[in-house]
Amino acid sequence: MDKMITVTHLQKTFKKTVKQPGLKGGIKALFRPEIETFEAVKDLNFEIPKGEIFGFIGANGAGKSTTIKMLTGILTPTSGACLINGKNPQKNRTAYVKDIGVVFGQRTQLWWDLALQETYSVLKEIYGISDSAFHKRMAFLNEVLDLNAFIKDPVRTLSLGQRMRADIAASLLHNPKVLFLDEPTIGLDVAVKDNIRKAIKQINQEEQTTILLTTHDLNDIELLCDRIFMIDRGQEIFDGSVTQLKQRFGKIHEVRFDMTRQDDVDKLNYQDLFSDLEVRKEGTQVTVQFDASKIAIPDLIKFTLTQADVTDIAVKDADIEEIIRRFFRKEIENV
User: Fold this and answer.
1) Which of 19, 89, 173, 190 is the most buried (most CB within 10 A)?
2) In what order do the strands lie in the sheet with 79-84?
3) Which domains does the chain have, with CATH numbers?
């Protein structure tokens, strides 16, 4: 299978000046600055074949955005190399950007005061897309992302979900071979997230677009990703499928119970019946984190309801930070 992205011993180091507090510290930093070196990315190695949806995940500050900025040519690696479709992002900048599309969930590439269709016309000229190719492409993107309802509206009037669909369309206008999606569903409601996921999946299947996706949403990972690559503190800690991730870390769930009285919270002694769980008690709220492959959710809820007067129950998957925390806890236990 053709390799679309190849990363070899990729590393990025930043230097920053450490300033001590007070006037004396300011003067010292001016004339004799203390330089501290920070390794944001450390010796990353991976390959992504053509047409794969690659989940690139990690806690905040893990080095994901720094890596993406190197892969897209925004930053230059301190050492190592990356090749995307046979091109070096830093050395072949002009030719390279025609092969990629980039979406940052918290930033937009659209012109704020222009109508959306005018924005796409500007991008058409920037990428040198012919009239016939542009109309054909817009027809496809309208079908997949349902843009017609707001395509004549100024970008500043769009909702977050509409803007995200518009940004994805803008990144795909020139039919790139690789699409970088950095938190594309952040801040969206459930229905909009589902539509965005379906669009991403359809684009990947119909056009064999290679997609590198960063997200904190485990549903994004489970529903979209063929493979997961997890990093922490700039280093690889996991590379495999969603099934392998669950086998390694357990199927983590979190249940939150809201109680009527503080006395009810004190009655709950889960450890008497269940093992391998964590309990947090804050006021009249109790949060239980557990491995659903070892503890059945109905059993946990039934036990709680028999012991206390519960006003509300919420069940959710644990987030990426919790998975990484459990990873390091298991590593320590195995030492």
Assistant:
1) 89
2) 34-49, 3-18, 79-84
3) 3-10+47-247 (3.40.50.300), 250-334 (3.30.70.250)
